[in-house]
Amino acid sequence: MTEGIIYVLHGRRGKIPKSNIDLLHTYMKRSDNPSIIGFLEGQQQTLEEGIEFLQSKTKHIIVVPVLLFSATHIRWDIPRRINDVLKAGVSFTVLKPLATTEAIFNYLNQTLKSAIQTYPNRKILIVAHGTPHFPEPYEQLTALAKRLQEAVKVPIICANHIGHHLVPDVLADESAALIVQRLFLTDGRLANRIKTNVLKAQPDSTFLPTLEDHPVITEAIEERLNETRPIINQK
Q1: Per residue in 178-203, is it b (16+ CB within 10 Å) or e — as a string?
Q2: How far apart are alpha carbons 195 and 184 in whole angstroms?
């Protein structure tokens, strides 16, 4: 039987966010698998409703977190909430998040190289959401930055919005304008808050677009699905 796929987005309390939805719907139309979007926050199109829909059609569900790093949502929330509604005889596989894909690296590599041509001799700041609970997201962020630094030949520094290595702390000793890449899938409240925090320290910094509505999101998803399909086919 064909596997079902649920694309899990963070969501927003009170309403369904529009960002990235059209992108995902277009991508989902290319698949023969029964597919649905589920949100972690809010009361509409919830993760649980998505799982209940898919388990009426398949015995195995592929869970695609449309998230960048493996923190509380992927480690705790998604497995717990799925198991709460999963029927006997139905299994699921949670894929890895998207930040460590080649698709994301290639996108950032191209974007940063282009920005360097316009703003030479500037350091690059990459900001992620961060978490106080696990070290792995920051370790993955710094590994990505190291690889990008080797590719673009410009110093790259990393910071988080929450947890450790916070933006104000990281920028305390930085006096020059920066090229800033906010590593977020949406261009909303948090991305704007980060912009405000950076501008307090370096008012002349330049901000690159977030990943919102960019095809790299579905390219990264496709990469994760291709990694997993041989494993699924062996079951």
Answers
A1: bbbbbbbbbbeebbeebbebbeebbe
A2: 12
| Composition of the chain by helix, strand, coil, percent to 5 | 40, 20, 40
Q: In what order do the strands lie in the sheet with 206-207?
A: 156-160, 124-128, 179-182, 206-207
Q: Tokens representing 211? A: 């990943």
**Model pTM?**
0.92
Relative to beta strand 35-41, strand 91-94 is: unpaired
Going by the DSSP 8-state scheme, the letter that residue 121 receives in this structure is: T
Per residue in 115-149, pLDDT (tens digit) is: 999 999 999 999 999 988 889 999 999 999 999 99
Structure tokens at 91: 């299994």
Residue 90 is given by DSSP the state -
Rounded Cα gap, residues 58 and 225, in angstroms: 17
Token pair of 189 as six digits: 């409240």
Rounded Cα–Cα distance for residues 75 and 148 (Å):
27
> How far is Cα 178 from Cα 76, in angstroms, rounded to an integer?
35
Angle between helices 136-152 and 102-118 (to 10 degrees): 50
| Cα 69–chain centre separation | 6
Residue of 19, 76, 8 whose CA lies nearest to 190 = 19
